[in-house]
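pasting input
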Amino acid sequence: MSTALKAGGNFVVYTGKAQSASDAFASIMSYLAGVIYYWNNVTGLYEQVITTTLMVPYGCYWIEVTQDCTWTYGPDETAPTSVQLYARDAGNLVPYLGPAQPAQDAFASIVAYLTLYYYFNNVTKAWEFTPTMVPLGVYYVRVSQNCVWSFAPPVLKGTITKKELEYDESRAVIPASNIPKDKAGLVHIWGRNDSKETQQMGISWVITDPDGVTRESYSTWEAWPYTGAGGEHEFIGGRFSLDKVGTWVINVALYMNPSNPTIVDSYYGTLCSVIPAEPEVTEFKIQDYVKI
Amino acid sequence: MTLTPLISSFKLSLGGADPVVGQQLAFSGWYRDPVTGQQYYYDAVQNQWYVYAAGYLYALGYMNPAPKQVTLAPGDKLKITLSFKYTGPAVTGVSSRYCIGAYGATGFDEKIYLTPTFNIPANLTATPVTVTNETTLTLPASPGADWDDIYVKIWGGTPSIGGSELSPNYIFGYENALVIVGITPVITEFKILDFVKV
């Protein structure tokens, strides 16, 4: 495996096997300038690399070279699927080992704890905020508590745990029955995050009246902070008039992953049955009259 | 017929034009036929015209041609069954009025009537169900020959189905529904049936 280095200082991820630094750097020995440092993310300290130092696969290294060159160091080690992050003022310097993707997706597993991140650009020699992640880039990451940053795509799992219809001062579990006509309806839906990581959940629903007319179309994504593993979020729609007698229908979908929305649970069925609140007489007539 | 509003504002609301019985108006109110003096009431909510007679309001257009004629003699009993479609909560104590009489230009001249009450069971679905109620009226010993019309009306109850005895929302009648017989001697086909030596 090889890594392109730019003249000057570079923060790079070493993807090779555990081997001595002298062997690992043999291909660029003549271009090295200054001291090589390895960032020990457990201690939060830089460690000087000498010829006998054992290289750490997928460690972050600071390397200065006199000219642009290609660092070749043999076969790659198998990449880890996650890295440990520590909540500390110094932050973390860690490799990003996932695909090129929006940062919100890349940080999905630690979105509840992430407070700051930067990517080191070896060309500009600067820490930059990048909305799209750079594979094998070195990232400075600060988190609010110790956590594991997983690079594996999260398994999105969620459940619609509760559905309620509010009408005026009352509430009923959906599907609700015998709701008096002409009440003002308001739907409450609770979604639970069954994933292992924090997720931003979204909801959409369409309510149709007994004539099949759409009466409410609602969708939204929950705002920060998102819902941690096992947590629930309540979505509340807008008010609509239950002004027709009969069966009202709701079609609900619970989503995760805003950049590529995925339905994790859904409900299609009766919202409620609306009954007449007042007597309604029609077709009044004399049905028959007979001599007895 | 063209009517004169009893309150001028009604006329103003109509842009100066006089209403015609049967016309749909924006406001409820009393009207008078300037030719006959007959008073009418219009209920804008129900879009229903009523004619006023002898202290009662009779909905215009509530009488219908009878689908059949039932022959009755003095002392005979007539069972009348009303029906309607219903949705809503249970209603108790609905008032009804079943009448036999003579319908004419001044309204329905009631000769025999009963005013039973009845209950309506709840129907809390969107599909109306048919409700029926029946009452039996008995002709007296000397009925009039023109007692050939019938009508029924319902109102009130708890909760109320609306209307009142004088201004019901639900009223229905048949003209020429009855043939009254046996009142006066009637001889027809008078002749010598036979003549023989005895």
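fyi Residues 282 and 288 of chain A are 17 Å apart (CA to CA).
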